[in-house]
Amino acid sequence: MVPRETVTEHRLDALEKKVDDGFAELKAEMRSRFDGVDQRFDRMQNTLIGSAAVIVASLIGLIATQI
């Protein structure tokens, strides 16, 4: 008969590996999703900067025609 401590140790080791593997998968998925969010924010920032540049250029043109 196998001592109970050995059986429990093996089960705990298996559980530890399963938990570690699960967290590794979760971290990889989160990293890929956050990379996607970062890209979306970068595109939004570029759009806002471009829009601000167009507005400033339009205002400069408007002021120049008024002078």
Q: What is the fold's blueprint, element by element?
A:
Blueprint: H1 4-66
Describe the structure.
Helices cover about 95% and strands about 0% of the residues. The protein has one helix at about 5-65. The protein is rod-shaped, with a radius of gyration of 29 Å. About 0% of the residues are buried.
Counting helices, strands and paired strands, the structural category is mainly alpha
Overall geometry: rod-shaped
Residues in helices, as a percent range:
over 70%
How many helices does DSSP assign? 1
- Poorly predicted tracts of residues: none
**Main beta sheet:** none
Structure in a nutshell:
This protein is mostly helical and 67 residues long. The chain has one helix and no strands.
Note the main attributes of this structure.
67 residues; mainly alpha; 94% helix; rod-shaped
